[in-house]
Amino acid sequence: MNLSDFFYMGGYAAFLWPAYGLVLSVLVYNVWSARRAHQEARRAAVRRLQMEETRS
Amino acid sequence: MWTWFHKLASPPHFYRIAGLTIPWFSWPALILILVGLYGGLVLAPMDYQQGEGFRIFYVHVPSAIMSMFIYSTMAIAAGIGLIWRMKLAHAVAAASAPIGAWFTFCALATGSLWGKPMWGTWWVWDARLTSELILLFLYLGFIALRSSIEDPQRADRSAAVLALVGVINLPVIHYSVVWWNSLHQGSTMFNPGAMSIQMKWPALAMLFGFMLYYGAVLFVRLRAEVIRRERNAAWLREELAR
């Protein structure tokens, strides 16, 4: 099988590649958004602790 | 055993152990998904009825199984949180919801992309498709309900009740192709003999890869939840100073 056959996917390329592309982008997005949530929570906690320090 | 369990459930311990565990999930997940992709796209033989188009199977079916697996995990965690008032269990439910919702979206979208060439339509209001769409709405409802209630404990409890009520939908999705006359084909993954091993193993690799991936993303989200829920504790101060 050569490369163009592979990408042609027996005529199903227009359906198959978007399906794979979509799932892989969702997988990447989920990792990114979870890490951002973690960083955001850390930043918010730092702010919270600083506020408490200035108050006391 | 119980002391070990309690220790693990304490926020500082959990935060540290989760951090150490994540690479043990994420690297095997990446490898299994890559192996599954290669197996599904290159090694697996072509289907005699659906040709190369059937290869959507390798992303569609694992996503669909994950959408239900994550919902079950979420509901069990919510139930534990309700009964034993365990904050970490509620955090597991909260952290699972967005991941599950995305897998449900993937199952629906890839199913649509598979349905168009095989059935001639993007969508039919059939039992399997409709019940899976309801699953997406359950996830979104759970997320919306949580974010609409200010008090975290009340948000936890109300969302947990919603998650538990939604469990009724899981057997409906699973048996929809048996109970109703559906356009959707029957189960091949759980039906021994429906698929040859050469065709099946990439899907299994993908599924286990997705499960480990879920574990890794769940732990990252859980760490965020633990910090969000922890108020002025000494360990947090110490942890953030690093």
Produce the secondary structure layout:
The complex is a heterodimer of chains A (56) and B (242).
Chain A: H1 3-8, H2 13-55
Chain B: H1 2-9, H2 11-43, H3 57-84, H4 87-119, H5 127-148, H6 152-166, H7 169-179, H8 197-229, H9 234-241
Helix pairs in contact in B: 2-8, 3-4, 3-6, 3-8, 4-5, 4-8, 5-6, 5-7
Please characterize this protein's 3D structure:
The complex is a heterodimer of chains A (56) and B (242). With 56 residues, chain A is an all-alpha fold. Chain A has a domain at 18-55. Chain A has helices at residues 3-8, 13-55. Chain A starts with a helix and ends with a helix. By secondary structure, chain B is mainly alpha-helical. Chain B has a single domain, classed as Four Helix Bundle (Hemerythrin (Met), subunit A) (Up-down Bundle), CATH 1.20.120. In chain B, helix 4 runs antiparallel to helix 8. Chain B starts with a helix and ends with a helix. The mean pLDDT of chain B is 91. Chains A and B meet through helix 2 of A and helix 2, helix 3, helix 4, helix 8 and helix 9 of B.
Question: In a nutshell, what does this entry contain?
Answer:
The complex is a heterodimer of chains A (56) and B (242). Chain A is 88% helix and 0% strand. The longest helix of chain A is centred in the middle third of the chain and has 43 residues, at 13-55.
